[in-house]
Specification:
By secondary structure, the protein is an alpha/beta fold. 38% of the residues lie in helices and 10% in strands.
Length: 300
């Protein structure tokens, strides 16, 4: 069993639900580095520097989960007229209604990339976090994960729940909906911020709890529009780069001005051109792009 952390920063064994007043939580106890023993000496580096092999494990499966989000590996997003309004809204959390913004857009529209670009130190939430919040906050006891969540709220941290609409659709259950409602209330009370992403507006989500439904529909809504030419070129370039395919700018301009203007069509176009390039053993050129453009994107 893991240890429990009290509001005064002490650690007790074994871990049991701890009684506390979450409203009085303000700061997280600082970690104290133990002093070296008398007989110990600091480790010395070799003349040529450290000999350890440093591995970047930030993208390894299972290391992220809920908790603080890693920095996006996609780099700085392309900001154009299609997403500039959303970008400005994410940059002004003080304007979010009761501290909550619902960011909607189709798959592949860069919702998470935009969020991580504006809030690199955010904390991710999962359905388990929300359900645990409901189970614990129904009484005057809270286990360590919920205490940790409350501490981050007291510190006015920014939270992200990706694909919130999918969590609702997959039957997260009554505990999830009640927990989400209490979470929204606590966000407003503490002055923290919460970002929910989805493919459609909350009015179209299948939510059974009326209070949660009305609260989500009242949240600030940020919608990513269909891509313009500049954003479409950036999406195509990113897709080709991810596949290790070198494509000239004139090819991207040619495609963006002639193809269907949607995020899904861009994804499919990249896949089709990559496949044709491999099959014909030739680079992606305007000539190849022109041949592929006669094909209907939704039938790739």
């Amino acid at each position: 069993m893991s240890s429990a952390r009290h509001s005064d920063g002490c650690i007790s064994q074994p871990s049991r639900p701890v009684r506390l007043d979450p409203y009085r939580l303000r700061t997280r106890p600082a970690a104290v580095k133990p002093a070296p023993k008398m007989h110990e000496t600091p480790e010395q580096e070799s003349p040529t520097g450290p000999t350890q092999l440093l591995l970047d494990l930030s993208a390894a499966p299972g290391l992220s989960g809920s908790g603080d989000a890693r920095r996006s590996r996609k780099g700085k997003p392309e900001i154009t007229e299609a997403n500039s309004v959303v970008h400005r809204m994410l940059s002004a959390p003080e304007s979010w209604e009761r501290g909550v913004v619902v960011l909607v857009g189709p798959g592949g529209s860069g919702k998470t990339t935009l969020v991580e670009h504006r809030h690199s130190d955010l904390r991710r939430l999962s359905a388990d976090d929300v359900e645990r919040f409901e189970r614990n906050m129904g009484s005057d006891e809270a286990t360590e994960p919920v205490v940790d969540l409350l501490l981050d709220m007291a510190a006015r941290k920014v939270f992200l729940f990706d694909d919130f609409d999918r969590a609702v659709e997959t039957g997260a259950g009554a505990d999830f909906e009640r927990g989400a409602f209490h979470l929204l209330n606590r966000v407003a009370e503490t002055g923290s911020r919460l970002i929910l992403t989805g493919r459609s507006a909350p009015s179209r989500w299948s939510i059974n709890l009326p209070d949660l439904k009305s609260r989500l529909e009242a949240a600030t809504l940020a919608r990513i529009e269909d891509p313009d030419d500049a954003l479409l070129r950036a999406i195509l370039r990113s897709g080709f780069n991810a596949r290790g395919v070198s494509v000239e700018d004139d090819v991207l301009k040619y495609l963006a001005s002639r193809m269907e203007r949607s995020y899904e069509a861009a994804r499919q176009m990249v896949a089709r051109l990559d496949a044709e390039s491999l099959r014909l053993k030739r680079p992606v050129t305007i000539s190849l792009a022109g041949a592929v453009l006669g094909w209907v994107p939704n039938r790739f």
